[in-house]
Amino acid sequence: MRKISPAQIATFASLFTLTLLLGLVTTLWLITPQAMGQFFSAALLVGFPVIFYAWAFLVYRLMHRFLPLQPGNLPAGSREEFAYQVDTLFRLVLFYPLIRTYFIPTPLMRLVYLALGAKMGDNTYSGGAILDPALTQMGANTIIGHDAVVFSHVIEGHDMALEPVVIGDNVTVGAKATIMPGVQIGDGAIVSVGAVVTKGTIIGAGEFWGGMPAKRLK
């Protein structure tokens, strides 16, 4: 695993500070003692996290305009590595607590993933964790089961790469399954409960896969 550099930490810290200031100013502008009366404290307690995360999503997406995530190998010291490491800090500090919590209902988590850059078709939801939303694409009427994990980053020793995951329409990924980087799943396919679909696997349309590592069952 590569060390996150001081420059990457400083970039994230600057963006985090900007987000925090925007959240505070917006909250104090919208929520005032005059408007809220005796509910002022409660309104601040509820309103600030919502407003803060709204700004966090916006700043995160704007960051990707200037530091886009590039699929493929990430050479040490490259702009591509820099972008991914800053993205990692955003996700670890701000967004993983949302993704890994059970507090947010699954329908609302769809909105979180969309805000983070995931491509999700109509009526597609995840009851699991999509760890790299900006590198994940799913079609319509697809479900990711409870506690399943989908991720698109490869970290093997000092090697680092990004490989997008593409999932088609009408796909079912069972509870506690793992979908690794570079996986492609065709329309109507089923991945069984607890299956581990290894890096770069291509699952054809309508196929049923299961096991550790996952194999085509029928």
What does this structure look like?
The protein has 218 residues and is an alpha/beta fold. The protein folds into two domains: 1-99, no CATH class; 106-218, UDP N-Acetylglucosamine Acyltransferase, domain 1 (3 Solenoid), CATH 2.160.10. 40% of the residues lie in helices and 20% in strands. The protein has five helices and 18 strands. The strands form four sheets. A six-stranded mixed β-sheet has the order 3-6-11-14-17-18. Strands 2-5-10-13-16 form a five-stranded parallel β-sheet, covered by helices on one side. A hairpin with a 4-residue loop joins strand 17 (208-210) and strand 18. Helix 1 crosses helix 4 (79-99). The longest helix has 27 residues, at 40-66. The chain is globular, with a radius of gyration of 19 Å.
Total number of beta strands: 18
Which segments are poorly predicted (pLDDT under 50) over 5 or more consecutive residues? none
Strand arrangement in the largest pleated sheet: 3-6-11-14-17-18
Structural class: alpha/beta
Rounded mean pLDDT is 92
Number of helices: 5
Topology:
Blueprint: H1 6-30, H2 33-36, H3 40-66, E1 72-73, H4 79-99, H5 106-115, E2 119-120, E3 125-126, E4 129-130, E5 136-138, E6 143-144, E7 149-150, E8 153-156, E9 159-162, E10 165-167, E11 172-173, E12 178-179, E13 184-185, E14 190-191, E15 196-197, E16 202-203, E17 208-210, E18 215-216
Parallel strand pairs: 2-5, 3-6, 4-7, 5-10, 6-11, 7-12, 10-13, 11-14, 12-15, 13-16, 14-17
Antiparallel strand pairs: 1-9, 8-9, 17-18
Helix pairs in contact: 1-3, 1-4, 3-4
